[in-house]
Amino acid sequence: AGFNPEFTGRENVYLNAAILGLRKEEIDGCFDDIAEFADIGDFIDQPVKMYSSGMYVRLAFAVAINVKPDILIVDEALAVGDAVFQAKCFAKFREFQERGVTIVFVTHAIDLITKYCSRALLLDQGSLIESGSPKEVVDAYNRLLVGSSARKAVASASEPQSPARTGDAVSREKWHGLFTVNPNENRYGDGRAEILEAGFFTEDGSAVQTLVKGDICEIRMRILFNDTVVEPIMAYTIKDIKGFDITGTNTWFQNVPADTYYRGDLIEVIFRQVFLLNAGSYLISFGCAGHEGGKYVVYDRRYDYMGFDVVSETRSVGFFDLESEITVRKITNE
Question: How many CA atoms within 13 Å lie on the side-chain side of 243?
């Protein structure tokens, strides 16, 4: 923001706005809006060196949005803001987008990229390595994080080369043809484990790709191990059609005891839950990974494995229905 730490917030507003091209009369006219948006109270007349990082960002952002920019660059600025301030900032972003203002959003928060951006660029050590839709670039970023490049899908019909050691007689009945799988899924990993197939099942074991909100369902995945893997983590993630992460979990989060698996072992993982997503279309992803020597290793990750739909007889706002019970009581007599 170019603030002088020895100056007060008020003095820095005038200095910074002047650098951005505003005359004193123009700054006078928008100062109250800046102070109201920053919402730092009497600290506006305290030296900036006394500010917390959050207060500093609040004031800097308030100045930037009130000088009527044609291009607004936001570099990780919202990482220190509280939830209310962030909501206020994103409301301002939407207002700017409607006015045709270009917003360059520099961040590692991939959920914000998929939710608010229309185009994304991925930089690695100063070099541009991906450009395209937010979803495409986020997928590339995830591959970069695990140090793995996309690979071709392995043959899902592979058979284990040694008896399963899971202790349960895992059914070998194939699920192929039960689900419409995304032919353009984003798959990568080192191949030491393969997610052979996955899908949704009702309580009676029927395969479904359209779910009813409020019903109990099972999300199942089958994994073949091609090498010895100690305590793998099995996971699923649900996104909206724009690629925004909505929910998900894994065996590590849920403290499910992990085993050691060997070449040829075939296992089935079942996530059972009441499905509370609102009606709409979604994507589900699956993963098998682990921690080895302090590093996070992806054995197989199948992003956007398949789409599915949720139907509902009731309506609510957003992604989830909290199943509220509403009571209205009259507490006064007129």
Answer: 23
Q: What CATH number should be reported for the domain whose range is 9-107? A: 3.40.50.300
Do 141 and 110 touch, CB atoms closer than 8 A?
yes
Was domain 153-311 assigned CATH 2.70.50.60? yes
* CA distances, 272 to each of 200, 210, 247, 304 (Å): 10, 16, 14, 20
Q: How is residue 163 written in tokens?
A: 């008896």
Over residues 43-58, mean pLDDT: 91
Longest dimension (CA), the chain: 81
3-state SS class at 121:
strand
Report which of 229, 174, 221 is spatially closest to residue 201, judged by C-alpha positions: 221
Considering just the CA atoms, what is the radius of gyration of the chain in Å?
26
Q: What are phi and psi of 303, to 5 degrees?
A: -75, 135
> Any residues with CB less than 8 A from the CB of 134 and at least 6 apart, and which?
113, 114, 117, 118, 119, 120, 242, 243
Task: Quote the pTM value.
Answer: 0.68
Strand partners of residue 202:
217
Q: What pLDDT band is residue 155 in, cutting at 50, 70 and 90?
A: very low
Structure tokens at 148: 């793995």
Give the list of residues 6+ apart from residue 107 with CB closer than 8 angstroms, or none. 74, 76, 78, 79, 113
Average pLDDT over residues 107-123: 84
Predicted confidence at residue 157, as pLDDT, reads 37
CA distances from residue 329 to 15, 310, 333 in whole angstroms, order as listed: 55, 34, 11
For the chain, which residues make up each domain, given as ranges? 9-107, 153-311
**Both structure tokens of 250:** 């894994």
- Say which residue the tokens 């520099």 belong to: 106
Backbone angles phi, psi at 244, to 5 degrees: -80, 125
Q: What is the rounded distance in angstroms from the CA atom of residue 135 to the CA atom of residue 142?
A: 11
